[in-house]
Amino acid sequence: MSASATITRSSRSSQVGLIFIAVAAAALLSVPAWASNDAMRLLIDIFLYAALACLWNFLAGYAGLVSVGQQAYVGLGGYGLFALTTKAGLPPLLCVPLVGLVAAVASIPIAMLLFRLRGAYFAIGSWVVAEVFRLSAILITPLGGGSGMSLPARIAQSIGQAPHDRYVSVYLTTLGLLLAILIGIFLVLRSRTGLALTAIRDNELSARSSGIDVDRTKLIVYVVTAFGTAMIGALIFLQRLRISPDAGFSVNDWTALVIFMVVIGGVGSFEGPILGALVYFFLRETMSNLGPIYLIVLGAVAIGVMLIEPLGLWGYLRARFGMQFVPLQLRVVDRAASAAPKFEETRPTA
Amino acid sequence: MSDAPLLKIDRLEAFYGDFQALYGLDLEISAGQIVAIIGANGAGKSTLLNTIVGLIDSRPEAVVFDGANIGGAPPYQIVAKGLALVPEGRRLFASLSVEENLLIGGQVKRPGPWNLASVYQLFPILSERRAVPVTSLSGGQQQMVAIGRALMSNPRLLLCDELSLGLAPIVVREIYGLLREIVASGVSAAVVEQDIQQALKIADRAYCMLEGRVVLQGAAGELTRESIAAAYFGV
Amino acid sequence: MGEWINTIVQGIMVGGLYAMFAIGLALIFGVMKLVNIAHGDLIVLSAYVALIATQTLGLNPLVSLVLVVPIMFLVGYLIQRGLFNRTLGGDVLPPLLVSFGLSVIIQNGLLQLFSADNRRLQAGALEVASVRLSDAVTIGLLPLLQLALAVAVIGALQFLLYRTALGRSFRAVSDDPRIAQLMGLNNRHVFGLAMGLSLAIVALAGVLLAIRANFDPATGPTRLIFGFEAVIIGGLSSFWGTLAGGIILGIVQSVAASIDPGYQILAGHLAFLAVLAIRPTGLFRRES
Predict the structure, then answer these.
(1) Domain ranges for chain C
(2) Chains A and C touch (3+ CB pairs under 8 A)
(3) Taking a C-beta distance cutoff of 8 angstroms, is the pair C53, C212 a contact?
(4) Which of the residues A122, B110, B226, C151 has an alpha carbon 20 to 30 A from that of C58?
């Protein structure tokens, strides 16, 4: 290797990507000024699912913790919002970060229990925890018991008198939360913890013997993910104005769909889950929702992706075109070899 | 006896992913022969045996056994044709007893003199400890089980990978003494061995490998110390 | 007092079924390190197959087992060779996600075909036949049969694993899949047989459970969780330990249900979490 070689994370496509992201963010921020309620509603849904997908991918694709029980935190966030607004009289938007904190604290003992299980047993264990939440919610009559409860009108109106104002409030909060989550994950991945995660993912045993505190790293990821997921849950049910145990802790809505999005988009990459969410919504808007058949098709596609191209759509695009949207991969660039740095992938970190 | 060799390796290449381990090897073993394969660590000796037995992929024509192309075939088919491997480090089945390890070696039912009774006759100590879990045996006894397990399939060619590994010299001598007896029963053998003296003592023919290639070959008795040393270290 | 005894006895009976769910899981995990998330949905699938058999052929559910068990064996073999075999031998993610996808597909497929209605298999007179042990304790004949079958299946499985060539093959492949091939074993086929056997066992248990308890397309995950909880409570060192784990789970559920039906499943989950917290390797460890 010549002395003029350097290690860098950016590439031509990631430079383009960053510009694109900046433009997109500006455009999205302007939406409330000109879009209809329906359009905002759709975008809110996309943001919520994109956030859930990124968080699940952070947990499973990066830390190797495949959870099929994240709906526990979605429901916890939703119920937390309803409880804090109706019983404690707190303003809804303030409750969002509050339920996040509650979930983060609750997730610590849960993690300590679940970390005693490995691989698929961890997955099923996480499902049991979610079921415990769901069954407990049925028993809590002050929050509506088995049939659930609606958010009182005055609380809904506190974030906006007219429906349009409410949509704008929720839209901006959701967009802000999504961006915060994306930036947060991005910063973690670029930090030492991110490097630790790559090592753990490649070979946990070697990572341990290299002095990496694997358990602590995984705990951090688990808690951060719970924090984010609960906040998303709060916004989901603030938007819906109604919650019930089955809706709050639904495996299909908050786990199956999310997992399928991540798998199809590309598990283990930063851009993959977002791409997967976009693909899902594109399909949903262009095809009518066929109920159970839709899930069957999605499941089959996800299986197909796992068998053929486990790194998903983004994995395929990256391998084929060497693309990355976000500067995360480390590359060696030999400036003396050519004028334009060649994209030579040593090993993907994202 | 026909002129065609029992095993013929023809320009064999082998890869671990992108890494090339064997670069166009040529090798022959005739029926009734013991062939020694010697070389430093990393020369590719184990890779060679693993490729012959189908654990590593190769061109079909690169490995010809008894006239048939077997390169790249699934191991369970190759074993049925009469090849057996005594793996490096024994690799016995830890949750099976001594007798069960032997019995599973006999899962491939081929005609021949080797069965439970004859294996116990060859290794009497195993008969005494037949119900014992293999993990409680000494290294030498485990090696006997590994050889016995391979013999149970009545192979025509026995591939032995580093029989002497981790064993006391006296045990090694005992085992190689028994190898002569095995070959006398009609089994040819290829022996990968770090202990050059032992290898040359027992073999009819020797191949010396270095970095994935054969760099020296000849009748075991004719190879000089100097030529072996030169080939071994690539001097 | 007699009420309590009856409750516990009921729990023991159902625990036998849970143990069979667990053993199905443990068998495939032992042989090929695979955990099938669709396990519970396949149990429910066998109940629906029995439903078709009883409705179209007029068979008693217990008789239909003669058809259902071989069918599910075949289903297991095909799923393993057609699908799961392609995911094994590497990353943890593919088998897990593929089996999750399969779970969703089976659930929604059953939903399409059978709707979300609650079903139960009718075993006729057998359902109410009972054996009177004492003044206070009456045991249903059917539950007794379930427990007997569970014990018999476990015994048969032990025999298979430790006294037959097939069992040796399972254990060898579990120890060292690479070297097992050198014994003339076609791993793909052995894995298929293991999955087939696993599904045959859980099909038996699934049909029996479907006579006692309602089922619908969404009840799969609960069945999976019961099996999983029995595995963790009982530990993985022996099948008899797993049986004990299943029985404990059954008893906990039964006792909780007698206090309030809404507590039944939750109590089981909490017992599982308690064992996980206090003794993660399970309550029963092999002495050796």
Answers:
(1) 2-278
(2) yes
(3) no
(4) C151
For every residue of A195-264, DSSP letters joined together read HHHHHHHH-HHHHHHTT--HHHHHHHHHHHHHHHHHHHHHHHHHHHSEE-HHHHT-HIIIIIHHHHHHHH
**What average pLDDT score do residues C63-85 get?**
95
Domain of A283, in residue numbers: 5-334
Range of the domain at B184: 7-91+156-233
Say if the Cβ atoms of A310 and C83 lie within 8 Å: no
Nearest partner of A134 among A227, A248, A286, A258, judged by Cα: A248
Q: Indicate yes or no: CB of C184 within 8 angstroms of CB of B91.
A: no
Question: Which CATH topology does C2-278 take?
Answer: ABC transporter involved in vitamin B12 uptake, BtuC (1.10.3470)
CA distance C3 to chain B (A): 45
Per-residue b/e over B39-67, b at no fewer than 16 CB within 10 Å?
beeebbbbbbbbbbbbbbebeeebbbbbe
Q: Which of A28-32, B101-105, C268-272 has the lowest mean pLDDT?
A: A28-32
Q: State both tokens at C74.
A: 């075949």
- Closest alpha carbon to B171 in B206, B130, B138, B137: B138
Distance CA B61, CA B72 (A): 9
Q: What is the pLDDT of residue C69?
A: 95
How high is the ipTM of this complex?
A: 0.89
Number of folded domains that form chain A: 1
Whose CA is closest to A59, among A72, A76, A47?
Answer: A72
A292·C112 Cβ contact <8 A: yes
Per-residue pLDDT of chain B (235 residues; tens, 9 = 90+): 456 889 999 999 999 888 899 998 999 999 989 999 998 888 899 999 999 999 999 999 999 999 999 999 999 999 999 999 999 999 999 999 999 999 999 999 899 999 999 999 999 999 999 999 999 999 999 999 999 999 999 999 999 999 988 888 888 888 898 998 899 888 999 999 988 888 888 999 999 998 899 988 998 888 888 888 888 877 6
E strands along chain C, which residues? 130-132, 138-140
pLDDT in tens, C205-256: 999 989 988 999 999 999 999 999 999 999 877 888 899 999 999 999 999 9
**Token pair recorded at residue B3:** 């002129």
Q: Which of C25, C81, C108 to mutate to test the interface with A (most CBs of A within 10 A)?
A: C108
Task: Flag whether B71 is in a domain.
Answer: yes
Do residues B65 and B73 lie in contact, with contact meaning Cβ atoms separated by under 8 Å? no
Among all residues of chain B, which has the CA nearest to that of C187?
B76
Instruction: Say which of B54, B76, B104 has its CB closest to residue C172.
Output: B104
B168 in a structural domain: yes
- Specify if A55 maps to a domain: yes
Among B137, B134, B128, which Cα is nearest to B92's? B134
CATH classification at residue B69: 3.40.50.300
Three-state DSSP state, C116: coil
Least confident of A31-45, A173-187, A295-309, C273-287: C273-287
CA distance B54 to B48: 10
Residue that the structure tokens 């104005």 belong to: A241
Other CB atoms within 10 A of residue A55 CB: 27
